[in-house]
């Protein structure tokens, strides 16, 4: 079969390699260059290697707990059951994970994990190593790669996908396919602060929405608790807190225990909200104190963070550094079954673009790279098999008469600020209605896009409307979706 994979992170490249090895003719299409995207920025590791006293069942339980009870049990079961094979595959494809002197994989622990079960590469450069290994593997196959190509839309014939429409060098181009795998990542650039690289604008999810493909859980946006509070944005891995670093207020007090008994190792949504509230109370950033780990340990365990923080003028071995939350990961996306199938025949979705059900309302740390590898392989295995339409979630009701929109003209910065203020960490009924009305007004006035930047803006507005609407309709706080209780509407 003729297969197109759109996106070249861990999920897309895994799907492409498995599809190629199954005998399909594969073309990888990527917005930038092969291996670009969020995978290469991942400092955290891959969960799924179980030491003494640990097990897949315990990993599943931690995943379900982090997901606030909304994770799909079957999807989580697949994740932990297939995880060991996918990690072994990454090693076989050349990914060099950190090992002890006796050759054993080094295992780390991160927030909300009950055991140390996470493998890393280069200390804090796991994603970069995985991207390197998979990119080399794809190049080695000789499969077709189309770089610097922007996904404009899906080509649909009747009820099935038949290809994709691209924008390359200012010209429109069409590629036919028997199957399309969307691995286009999330939409971090909906927000004023994000850990995501430029270009993470929800292109695949927006294209699916325009084609009538079901999506789910877009209201669940995970904010990473700790990025360095200095531009440009730079993530400080959760593994730093897993090694013992603490979060302190301006008096040096560990304030996160006010919100959760696990303190700094509580689920990400809890820690992020605690940081946001404390920073607002004191009128200054909170700080991450890693000084107790010492300069040699910080340089060895977190070489990338150590280098960048020092380049930015911070000596984190001697003094705490200022941190703030930022939009990090989209738990929702294109609804799929356990093999990546969407509600449109021939269309698969994997990675952050997909809503597999694994993450529920809040992703467990270091499950994202694992999910990409596991479900990328499963989607490839399902190509060519009889199509089984997945059970689709109920479509969201249309929210009418949301509010009076703000009068500011549209710009990407204005949208990102609106989303940060009203559809971010702390949400209110009035704020969500204001955001939804404003986004709709901006969409109605947006001219037809003709270049990549304009297409990105249009995609961000599509995702912003869907996200604000989903957040407004979910009136109960759960996981990463938090509604201020006193202001919830009815």
Please provide a written account of the structure.
34% of the residues lie in helices and 16% in strands. With 490 residues, the chain is α/β, with parallel strands linked by helices. The strands form 5 sheets. The protein has a 5-stranded parallel sheet with strand order 5-2-1-9-16, with helices on one face. Helix 1 packs parallel to helix 10 and helix 5 crosses helix 13 (452-473). It is globular, with a radius of gyration of 21 Å. The termini are far apart. The model has no long low-confidence stretch (mean pLDDT 94).
Q: What is the CATH T-level topology of the largest domain? A: FAD/NAD(P)-binding domain
What strand line-up does the widest sheet have?
5-2-1-9-16
SSE ordering:
EHEEHHEHEEEEEHEEHEHEHHEEEEHHHH
Major β-sheet, in short?
5 strands, parallel
Strand content bin: 15-25%
**Rg, Å, rounded:** 21 Å
Shape: globular
| Poorly predicted sequence stretches spanning 5 or more consecutive residues | none
Oligomer class:
single chain
End-to-end distance, in Å? 50 Å
Could you say which structural class the secondary elements and strand pairing correspond to? alpha/beta
Count of separate DSSP helical elements: 13
Could you say how many structural domains there are in total? 3
CATH architecture of the largest domain: 3-Layer(bba) Sandwich
The average pLDDT value, as a whole number, equals 94
The portion of residues assigned to helices is: 25-40%
CATH class group of the largest domain:
Alpha Beta
How many strand units? 17
Question: Superfamily at the CATH H level of the largest domain?
Answer: FAD/NAD(P)-binding domain
């Amino acid at each position: 079969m003729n297969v197109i994979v759109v996106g070249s992170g861990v999920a897309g490249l895994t799907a492409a390699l498995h599809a190629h090895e199954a005998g399909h003719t594969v073309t990888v299409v990527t917005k930038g260059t092969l291996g670009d995207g969020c995978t290469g920025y991942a400092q955290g590791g891959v969960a799924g290697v179980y030491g003494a006293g640990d097990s897949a069942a315990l990993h599943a339980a931690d995943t379900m707990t982090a997901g606030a009870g909304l994770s799909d049990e079957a999807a989580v079961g697949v994740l932990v059951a297939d995880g060991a094979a996918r990690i072994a595959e990454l090693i076989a494809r050349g990914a060099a994970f950190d090992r002890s002197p006796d050759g054993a994989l080094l295992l780390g622990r991160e927030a909300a994990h009950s055991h140390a079960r996470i493998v890393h590469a280069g200390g804090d450069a796991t994603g970069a190593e995985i991207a390197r290994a998979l990119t080399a593997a794809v190049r080695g196959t000789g499969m077709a790669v189309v770089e610097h190509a922007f996904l404009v839309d899906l080509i649909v014939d009747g009820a099935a996908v038949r290809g994709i429409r691209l924008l390359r060098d200012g010209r429109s181009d069409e590629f036919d396919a028997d199957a399309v795998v969307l691995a286009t990542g999330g939409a971090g650039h909906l927000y004023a602060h994000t850990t995501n690289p430029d270009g993470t604008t929800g292109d695949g999810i927006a294209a699916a929405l325009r084609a009538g493909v079901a999506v789910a859980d877009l209201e669940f946006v995970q904010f990473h608790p700790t990025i360095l509070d200095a531009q440009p944005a730079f993530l400080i891995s959760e593994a730093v807190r897993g090694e013992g670093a603490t979060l302190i207020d301006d008096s040096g007090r560990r304030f996160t225990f006010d919100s959760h008994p696990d303190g700094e190792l509580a689920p990400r949504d809890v820690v992020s909200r605690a940081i946001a509230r404390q920073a607002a109370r004191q009128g200054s950033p909170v700080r991450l104190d890693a000084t107790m780990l010492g300069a040699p340990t910080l340089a060895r365990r977190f070489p990338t963070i150590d280098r960048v923080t020092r380049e930015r003028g911070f000596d984190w071995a001697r003094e705490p550094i200022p941190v703030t939350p930022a939009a990090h990961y989209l738990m929702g996306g294109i609804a799929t079954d356990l093999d990546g199938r969407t509600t449109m025949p021939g269309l698969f979705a994997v990675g952050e673009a997909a809503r597999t059900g694994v993450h529920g309302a809040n992703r467990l740390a270091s499950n994202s790279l694992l999910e990409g590898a596991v479900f990328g392989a499963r989607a490839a295995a399902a190509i060519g098999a009889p199509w089984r339409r997945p059970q689709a979630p109920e479509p969201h009701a249309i929210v009418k008469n949301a509010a009076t929109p703000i009068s500011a003209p549209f710009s990407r910065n204005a949208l990102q600020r609106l989303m940060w203020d009203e559809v971010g960490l702390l949400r209110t009924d009035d704020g969500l209605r204001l955001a939804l009305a404003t986004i709709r007004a901006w969409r109605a006035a947006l001219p037809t896009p003709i270049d990549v930047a304009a297409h990105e803006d249009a995609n961000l507005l599509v995702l912003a409307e869907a996200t604000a609407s989903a957040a407004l309709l979910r009136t109960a706080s759960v996981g990463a979706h938090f509604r201020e209780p006193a202001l919830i509407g009815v």
